Amino acid sequence: MSVIIPCYNAARTIGTTLRSIADQTLLPVEVICVDDCSRDDTVEVIRAFAATCPAPEIILHRMPQNGGPSLARNAGWSMARGDHVAFLDSDDIWHPRKLEIQMRVMQETGSFGSSHARKVDLSLSPPPAVEVPAPQPLSFTGLLYWSRIITSSVVLRNSPDYRFPEDMRYSEDFKLWCRILADGHRFMLIDVPLSGIVGGHDAAPGLSAAVLKMERGKLAVFRGLHREGRISWPRLASVIAFSNLKFVIRRIQGLF
């Protein structure tokens, strides 16, 4: 198992993020921290943590220029030696049993990938106990209508066939999950929260412009799938209409 963390100006949070990996009941082989030209002390914090952490191995890779999360994740992915890869954002933390639970589910189901429920407050000490329900397979059609996959929750088999699209800045992760499921791979959802934000609270809601760009990115993914012949014209119209409806509802709810 290789864990990949893209980092940009993450000095305040990356130490806590790395600690949550070192505290896993199933340790990964390596943690690849990809610094995307941070302007703060991110690199120094990573080096200091690595110097005092006997396991897992902490690898620091520095990008030659800022390229965004997809480029950083792919750089780390290309270096990964593990049979599986897990993705973690530099301001997120994991429940201590996260990797243990997901690897067991993937081995038992023979799945290519897995993810778990949304983020919760993991700042409690000790962390809350978890009961693992029966995992449920996620279908390609289901993903089109309800994108429930959080990047920091994902574990995948390490395959050279898949990478994050580097030509997108928004919804690029959604495009990758769609490709994997459209190719017929088995992907399991585990309905238990196993990740959280450093500090125990969600970040402030994104700016309206960013939210709109994410929605536009998702619509671009839908159109790309149609051009590739992976979804029909009626399906394209249906998922676009449903996505627009959800977007409008979220915007209205944000006003109150």
TrEMBL record:
Superkingdom as given in the UniProt entry: Bacteria
Domain Glycosyltransferase 2-like: 2-111
GO MF annotations, alphabetized: hexosyltransferase activity
CDD domains reported in the protein's UniProt record: Glyco_tranf_GTA_type (cd00761)
PANTHER family attached to this UniProt entry: GLYCOSYLTRANSFERASE, UDP-GLCNAC:BETAGAL BETA-1,3-N-ACETYLGLUCOSAMINYLTRANSFERASE-LIKE PROTEIN 1
Protein name: Glycosyltransferase
Organism: Pannonibacter tanglangensis
